[in-house]
Amino acid sequence: MIHEVDEALRGLLDESGLAASGVEVVFDAPTRDWAARRNAPTVCVFLYDIREDVSRRGSGAGEVHDPDGHLVARRGPPRWFELTYLITAWANRPQDEHRLLSQVLACLVAVDALPDRLLSGTLAALGLTVDLDTAGAGLAAPAAADVWSALGGELRASLGVRVRAPLAAVARPTAPPVTEGLVVRSGARQEDGGGVPWHRLRYEEVGDPGPDGFSGRRARPAAPVRRRRGGRQP
């Protein structure tokens, strides 16, 4: 799911004109060593915090059907996670960096969710809305200053972006559908311990098939006559 969110963000930023202008979108950690190796205009989308939104955790199970409509698996509800990104712009001059960052900001605040056309894999299969919050207040994640300190770099202008995305639950296969009627096998043992071949009994041997494809009701045998003790059989 995380890589699918990454690709959706990349596609959204490329559509804003970054790709046409030769600006590269990367997901590397903007460390001091990375910044020293950079030699082209770049927008860095760094994922630095992942946590579950427990308020949206559901229960129960849904059904998964094959193209013929048969039940093939059961799947629990998806679990929602908040992915927090730190977006920075890198160029030779601060003015160029601010221009890039402004272009990114205008692109992201124009939408409240990742467009469906950019979703792939499990995100597309679930068909759920993937919310997008750009530079919002109250992001439940480490502060930008703490992130820069951990990366060993200098504090610079950045955008905080939070994506709420569903993680599909594991589908558990069910038993295959029943396609045949009941088959009964019976056998008797001889006195010497040997067995006799099994006899296969099917519904069609005891009546005509009913409207559901199975045989009709089998006639009930008459009750045997029981002998009285100490008397004569009538």
From TrEMBL:
<dbReference type="Pfam" id="PF14065">
    <property type="entry name" value="Pvc16_N"/>
</dbReference>
<feature type="region of interest" description="Disordered">
    <location>
        <begin position="187"/>
        <end position="234"/>
    </location>
</feature>
<protein>
    <submittedName>
        <fullName>DUF4255 domain-containing protein</fullName>
    </submittedName>
</protein>
<dbReference type="InterPro" id="IPR025351">
    <property type="entry name" value="Pvc16_N"/>
</dbReference>
<feature type="domain" description="Pvc16 N-terminal">
    <location>
        <begin position="4"/>
        <end position="179"/>
    </location>
</feature>
<feature type="compositionally biased region" description="Basic residues">
    <location>
        <begin position="217"/>
        <end position="234"/>
    </location>
</feature>
